[in-house]
Amino acid sequence: MINLVEGQIPEIHVSKPYALVAITKHGVKHARAYAEKFPYVDVYYMKKFEQGDEAQRNIQLFDGTVRLLLPALFKQYKAMILIISLGAVVRMIAPILEDKKTDPGVLVVDDKGQYVISVLSGHIGGANALTNEFAEAIHATPIVTTASDVQKTIPVDLFGARFGWIWDSDEKLTPVSASVVNEEQVAIVQETGEKDWWMHDTPMPPTLKIYSNTAEAIAAKPHATLLITDRIIEKHEQVLLENGVIYRPKSLVLGMGCNRGTSAEEIEACIDETLAELKLSKKSVKAIATIDLKKDEHGLLQVTANNQWQFVTYSPNELNEMPISNPSETVYKFTGAYGVSEPAALRYANATSWILEKKKSGNVTISVARMAF
Fold first, then answer.
1. What are 258-282's pLDDT values in tens digits?
2. 149 in a domain, yes or no?
3. pLDDT at 9
4. What is the rounded CA–CA span in Å between residue 147 and residue 166?
5. Residue 214 has pLDDT above 70, yes or no
6. Are residues 317 and 355 part of one domain?
7. CATH code, 53
8. What is the mean pLDDT of residues 319-332?
9. Is the pLDDT of residue 313 over 50?
10. Which of 68, 28, 30 is nearest to 50 (CA)?
11. Are residues 241 and 256 in the same domain?
């Protein structure tokens, strides 16, 4: 917990590029939801709104006036997203402004989540681009008041953020961004994930070219690459990453079953082993799906909480509506469903086939499906 004291710089833990701060009951509720929709934020809110799961969700609580917290956030984040009234924000940040070339972006979100306003460092600080992306993620209206906005192109560090995409590494964000804004040839290879990522009212510039696979992109010898995939990249594809960024969409669903009392460690080990065998990234997992008999299974709940995945359960009837290759009378006898992991994965993914239909490992059964976009 952060104790805010006049004249002292508070200690904060920075793990994401942006800080999201709330100081009201409704703001806290929104902030917790926004963090699930937009993965690049560290959340801060007042201790009096503590709900008990903050440590598990990496949320930082503070005690004292938020005015004393902002200078530390201002120095250490690319931008601050504040669920605080605009007038109050202007008064609080005025004493800490330094230079438009170095000040971070500042955004304000109203208490109902209707509007996202770009307040400071719209161009150089990237607040305008962040305003548009964040507003899209939370289904709000972006408000950008600068007369001339930045180039209508892809903001590399925010690409797909409104869908929950995350980059594998930030190592090449700066040089790839330079290739995009300098209108060099940039290859975009998308293997999975949401397709409606172009959000401008103008056509995509010809310097950005979409390729159907990595082989075509390699042959084109682009200056930079944006690779959207849930796969672990093969050695022969590494050339694309010499100046490239991998984006991980939330595209994988794990259908799971387990014996009662199976530990989280055994479940997690099974997941890690299975994804490694399939050469898939754990960062692309969206959810664990199972039967509602397991809705209180501690091991499954702990794994989903630790990884910040969704946990979804279905009734036996809902699972039996899904076609599976090998229905089990034994499973039906104990659960009322002819299968658990296979139909649960298919149902959540809205898919017709699996990447992995079913694998048994110790006390755990796992199926893997890819989301249909």
1. 999 999 999 999 999 999 999 999 9
2. no
3. 86
4. 31
5. yes
6. yes
7. 3.40.50.11220
8. 90
9. yes
10. 28
11. no
Q: 114 and 176: one domain?
A: no
Distances (CA, A) of 210 to 17, 95, 185, 207, 236: 27, 46, 11, 10, 20
Residue 16 resides in a domain: yes
Contact 234, 215 (CB under 8 A): no
pLDDT tens digit string along 127-157?
A: 888 999 999 999 999 998 865 455 678 888 8
Is residue 295 predicted with pLDDT exceeding 90?
yes
181 & 124 share domain: no
| Domain closes at, from 201, 228, 248 | 248
183 & 57 share domain:
no
- Asked if 126 and 177 sit in the same domain, the reply is no
pLDDT band at 21 (very low <50, low <70, confident <90, very high): very high
What's the order of all strands across the beta sheet hosting 224-228? Answer: 166-167, 244-248, 224-228, 186-190, 208-211
User: How would you list the strands of the sheet with 356-361, edge to edge?
Assistant: 310-314, 285-291, 252-258, 364-370, 356-361
Residue 56 covered by a domain: yes
Strands (E), the chain: 2-3, 18-22, 41-46, 60-63, 79-83, 105-109, 115-120, 141-143, 166-167, 186-190, 208-211, 224-228, 244-248, 252-258, 285-291, 310-314, 356-361, 364-370
Does a structural domain hold residue 156? no
Give the total number of structural domains in the chain.
Answer: 3
Query: Strand, coil or helix: what is 219?
Result: helix
Return the pLDDT at 124: 65
The pair of structure tokens assigned to 127 is 């607040």
* CATH code: domain of residue 283: 3.30.420.180
Q: Please give the mean pLDDT across all residues of the chain.
A: 93
- 336 and 318 share a domain? yes
pLDDT tens-digit series, residues 172-201: 998 998 999 899 999 999 999 999 999 888
Q: What is the CA radius of gyration of the chain?
A: 23
Which tokens in the block code for residue 30?
């929104």
In a shared domain, residues 199 and 308: no
Cross-strand pairs, 105: 79
Q: Domain range spanning residue 314?
A: 252-370
Residue 221: exposed, middle, or buried by beta-carbon count in 10 A (0-12, 13-18, 19+)?
Answer: exposed
